[in-house]
Amino acid sequence: MLASYVLLDLETTGGNPVHDRITEIAALRIDHGQVSARWHSLVDPGRPIPPSIQRLTGISDAMVAGAPAFEQLAPQLLELLQGAVLVAHNVRFDHGFLKNAMARAGVDLRVRTLCTVRLSRRLEPHCSGHGLDAIQRRHDLVNPARHRAMGDVQVLQAWLQRMAQVHGEDALREHARLLLQAGASLPPHLQSDIDALPEGPGVYLFHGEGGMALYVGKSVNLRRRVLSHFQADHRQAREMRMSQELRHIEIRETAGELGALLLEARLVKQLQPLFNRKLRRDNRLCSWRLAGDVRELPLLALVRDEGLDPAQFDRLYGAYRSRRQAQDSLRAVAERHQLCLRVLGLEAGRGRCFAHQLGRCRGACCGDESLQQHALRAQAALAGERLRAWPFEGAVGVRETSADGRRTEIHVFEQWRHLGTVRDELELDELLRSRRDDPGFGFDLDTYRLLLSHLCGPHGRAPDLLHLPARRAA
After folding, report:
1. What 8-state DSSP symbol labels residue 206?
2. Which structural domain range is residue 459 located in?
3. pTM
C-alpha cells in the first residue's frame, strides 16, 4: 500500500485524549509489503481503569500493575514510527492520545497519518458501515481478541490484504496516496466534501447522526475556519469528541461578517447545538430602571421582559442574565462610589444603613446627603452601564456587499431588534409589511451589542445605512 507504514491500535482508560491514559499499544511495521517489526506492550496508566472499560477491553488494573509507563516506552515507539506513516482505524483517536502522551514525555510527535475508516469509505462507498465490527462482518474476518490492541491491528492487516486482492495493489496505493495528500486528520465519519467548502464569509453547521446539531460557527473564511477544527482535536477533548460525532457539514454563505454574526446568533439560539457554549442563553434579561423622580425610593427597580422596552433605554442601566448578577453588579458599583444600598433598593429598612456606620455610605439614608445629590452620583457611577437609546426615527437597513460584489444583503433593524435579512427590494417590502410588534421580534442582548459595535465601533468606514419607514401599510 505504502512504502513504509505502521498499523497501530491503542486501548485507553476512556475517550478523552487530554485526561485519559493509554493502557495497551500494539503495532506492526510494514516496509515494502513485508512485516519488519511487531511490537506490543501493556502500559501502566498511573490511575484506575474504569469498570466499564475493564469489561470492554478485558484489561484490568491487575494486568497493568508493574507494566512500564508510557514515558519508558516512548523511545521504542518513536523508533518504530521513524520514517513511516501512522495507519489506524479512526486515526484521529490514536494520534490524539499519542500526541498528548508524547507531549507529557517531553516529545513533540510529528508523523503523517492515514485513517482506514476514510480509506474504507473510498474503497467501498456503497457500504453503510465502516467501523471495525462492520468491516469484520462484511469480509468474514476473524478477530482473535476484539478490543485488544494486537487483535484489532491483525484485523486491519487482514482487511488491507483483502482490499489489495479485490481492488488491486495499485488502486489501493493510489487511494492511500490521495488521502495523504488531502490530509488524514479529517474526521473519519465525515460524509461532506471538504474540497467544496467556500473561502468567503458565512456560517457553518456541524451535524451528527440523524442531523443532530453539534456546533454552529461563523467565519470570514469558512474553509480555513472549518479545517482549523480538525487540526487541534488532539489538544482539546471537546474538539476530539465533536470530531468523532461529526457526519455532515452544512454551509450558509453571507455577504459579509455582520450577516454571519447575526445568523450564527440566531441559529445557536434556535438549534441549541450540543457544543456551543456562548449565545445559547435565553432571552430572559433584566435591567435597573431609574425612578422618574430622584426623590422616589427606591431609586432603582429591577425590570425584565416587557419592562426592557428599547423606547425607555435612557432610563435603563445594564442588561443581566439573572437577578443575582444584576444585584452583585450594583453592589460592586455602590461600594466603589459610597452609594447607599437602602436608597438604591438593595436593602430594606429605615434610617441609617449599616454601610453608613462603617463609613461606606455618605448618608443619603439619614439626611447627611440629599437624595438629589445621591441620585446624581448614582447616575454618574452607572453611566457606563446605561443602555443606548435607538438613534434613528424608524427602522434602518444595514447593507452589506460581498468582496466580489456578487452578493448583497440588507439587515433590517428597529429599536435594536433584528427584523430579518433580505436580498432585494421585494423581500424588503414584504418584511416591512408583515412585521408585527410581537415576541418574535423581542429584544436580544447579543444582537444589541453586535449592532452597537457595528454602528459605533472602530470600523474603517461607516456602515451603509438605509433609513426605512417605521411602518409600511399592507
Report:
1. E
2. 396-467
3. 0.61
In-domain check, residue 188: no
DSSP state of 468: -
- For residues 158 and 50, state if they share a domain: yes
Residue 76, C-alpha cell as written in the block: 521504542
What are phi and psi for residue 28, nearest 5 degrees? Answer: -120, 125
Q: Which residue has 466580489 as its cell numbers?
A: 404
Taking CA atoms, 208 is separated from 183, 193, 237, 238, 275, in Å, by 21, 15, 17, 14, 11
What residues contact residue 218 under an 8 Å CB cut-off, 6+ apart?
Answer: 201, 202, 203, 204, 225, 257, 260, 261, 263, 264
Give how many domains the chain has, as a whole number: 4
Domain assignment present for residue 369? The answer is yes
Residue type, 299: L
Query: Taking a C-beta distance cutoff of 8 angstroms, is the pair 265, 447 a contact?
Result: yes
CB 409 within 8 A of CB 465: no
CA dihedral 233, 213, 250, 206 (to 10 degrees): 0
Is 281 within a domain? no
Question: What is the average pLDDT score of the chain?
Answer: 88
- Say if CB 333 and CB 379 are below 8 A apart: no
Q: How far is CA 304 from CA 85, 416, 472, in A?
A: 59, 16, 29
Q: pLDDT-derived band of residue 398, with 50, 70 and 90 as boundaries? A: very high
* C-beta separation of 279 from 269 below 8 A: yes
Instruction: Tell me the three cell numbers of residue 332.
Output: 460592586
Residue type, 210: G
Q: Tens of pLDDT along 224-247?
A: 899 888 765 555 677 778 888 999
Same domain, 249 and 373: no
